[in-house]
Each structure stands twice: as C-alpha cells, then as structure tokens.
User: Fold this.
Amino acid sequence: MKKAIDKPIASGKEGANGTSVETGFRIEALRIKLLQVPLERPYRASSGVCKTRRTGGVEMRCGGVTGYGEAAPFDEPFYSGDTVSSILALYRDIYLPRLLGKDFRSLEEFHLELGRGVRDNPIARAGLETAAWDLVSALQKKSLVTLMSHVLR
Assistant:
C-alpha cells in the first residue's frame, strides 16, 4: 500500500487555559492538511489519467482528544462548486479564525456556525462536521452510531 503525502495548510492553537463546556466542546486546535493519496489503480477517463487524489484533511482537538474529518472535492468544479483549492482557502481564511477557541453547546450549534455568512460549500462543511462528530463521539466515549441515534430520534 502506498503512503499518502500530507502538507500542512493551516493550523492554530487556542491558549492552554481553554476548557471545554461541560455539555459541548471547545475547538482548542484545528489543523487543515492537504493530503495527496496515491490510488491503487490509476483512474482513466476521456480527460486523462489520475494516479493520485488530493483531498483536505481536518484534525480538530479538544481536551487532548482529536476528531478527524475529510473534505474530498475534485480539483476542478465539474461535480460541485467546491474544489480542493477553494476548500483550503475557505478553511484558512474563514473557518480557522472563526472556530478556533470557540465553545459550542451542541453539534447543531456548530452546524449553524458553519453556515453563518457562508453560502453553499457543502464539501468544505462536511470535512469540518465529520471532524466535529468524531471529536464529540470520542469526548463522550460513545460510538458515532449511539451519538447519531440520539439526534435522529
């Protein structure tokens, strides 16, 4: 199996005094990385051959716990308006400064914050939301299935 190559794009840390809200979470650190994942088999299409896939990796930390997410748009906007370059810029310029050090009472509040003043960008949001769900799941020591079942009821 080939190893993915990653390149840090943006990261930040909140001060050591930051603590988690009891029923929620605080984003103490947020790291965004450009991952270049080699494909097991090249993808061939009329437009050419693709041997690697670029994607945006998200690491979100709170209380010594890390949640992981991924935003995997294409390089060109033929499927969605999100591209690898656009999500990385959105993370670096908008979401990193907005989210770092912020307390959230719930995942719903986090979701609403992602949409505040930012239209569309579903793939970029998905990378952050999956990291937040993973983080809260680990903080509460519950599986994602258990966590989601409470939301879906």
